[in-house]
Amino acid sequence: MIDHWGGMTNATRTWAGTTLADRRAIRRQQLIDAGIELLGGGDTAAVTVRAVCRTAKLTERYFYESFADRDALMLAVYEHVAESARQAILNAMVDVEPRPEALARAAVTAFVELLIDDPRKGTVLLLAPITEPALNKRGSELLPTFTAMIHDQLPDSYDETDRKLTATSLVGALTYLFISYLDGSLDVPRDRMIDHAVRMLVAAASP
After folding, report:
1. Number of Cα atoms under 13 Å in the Cβ half of residue 46
2. Average pLDDT of span 123-150
């Protein structure tokens, strides 16, 4: 971008090969990564501006460069993990044979690898909205995104009402399944849990 005097704006001036906008984006991601680390530990009270800055190795000046307050960071962390999960599922299904079992296994495995094998991210997406006021509403708002992914895979033999009912029920059941695995109340082998989730999806797609 060129300013009114024919020069480069601050955002596009380079330093050490990067622009100011690039450096801001890098710092923002550092703060989000720090938020995942802290919020993923399960203690939402530990996620303070000071703690996030210390973990990210940045000053508070840089925190407020990207976020208005702690709640804004919490939402950004949550949405980052949710979008990563959505994209991981979509990517996993791209080159899979279009059979219900193959699609379901690809989707569940991708979800588990991202959010269960890395409990920090699973805690952010599935457990934190239960106890963190800043995330309560947003967690409910994003559920339809995952409901729609299941809805679109259901067979044409379902009418629209059945599709909505089935997709909503499955998201609820799978969410509780993964929450129970993450919080330790469901003590089963990882592969057994994946197989069970796949069977649930396949049964719904094969009426």
Report:
1. 13
2. 90
